[in-house]
């Protein structure tokens, strides 16, 4: 499989109180030769190196609606930010970099310096899968703009309540919402944002823009 068979898709991140859209998380799907979605998606990660980089690069290039205020969430490993030319020539306004699950910060000082530099260009940081690994707590030192609660907490309401209480004043995104009852629970716990199939499935860019034009998606603005 080559890059022409890789297609970015975008899943909305919704403000639970207003149902407005904060932004979209970019992922990538593989396509069969006939244009249908790859039947065995796990093959992507096994056979394509730098999949996150390809997905991120395609998304940042394609996602023009950042100019309308919608944020683009993309995945990265901390060590990638140590690369000197990491998006230095790209406008990063409304781009949110998700520090991925189980990633390690080999040089925390250097990583924090790079994050500070990239933030001046508009970049924001999300700490992904918070609570799934002790290393996530260590990464709070980077002062993330958003925290994404791991979807495993959806399965245990008591744990969800405990984790929500630990996130303090951070802007929290609850992942894995596949039942609307968790929208109500999230609002009760003061969680601002949600993501999951009950709120919107991943979709091609063309479908995203159509929904925006039709008024189905309205941007969530906040200070």
The CATH topology turns out to be TIM Barrel
**Helix/strand class:** alpha/beta
At the first level of CATH, the class is Alpha Beta
User: H/E order of the elements?
Assistant: EEHHEEHEHEHEHEH
Provide the residue-averaged pLDDT.
78
Cα separation of the termini: 43 Å
Taken from the alpha-carbon principal axes, the silhouette is: globular
- What strand order characterises the main sheet? 1-2-3-4-5-6-7-8
Radius of gyration: 17 Å
**How many domains make up the 3D coordinates?**
1
Per DSSP E runs of 2 or more residues, the count of β-strands stands at: 8
The portion of residues forming beta strands comes to 15-25%
The biggest beta sheet is recorded as: 8 strands, mixed, barrel
Observed structural traits:
223 residues; alpha/beta; TIM Barrel; 7 helices; 8 strands; 28% helix; globular; EAL_sf
Give a written overview of the molecule.
By secondary structure, the protein is α/β, with parallel strands linked by helices. It has one domain (3-213): TIM Barrel (Alpha-Beta Barrel). 28% of the residues lie in helices and 22% in strands. The chain has 7 helices and 8 strands; from the N terminus they run ββααββαβαβαβαβα. It has helices at 42-47, 51-62, 108-119, 134-138, 157-166, 181-188, 205-213, and strands spanning 6-15, 21-30, 71-76, 95-99, 124-130, 146-149, 171-174, 193-194. Strand 4 (95-99), helix 3 and strand 5 form a beta-alpha-beta unit. The longest helix has 12 residues, at 51-62. The termini are far apart. The mean pLDDT is 78.
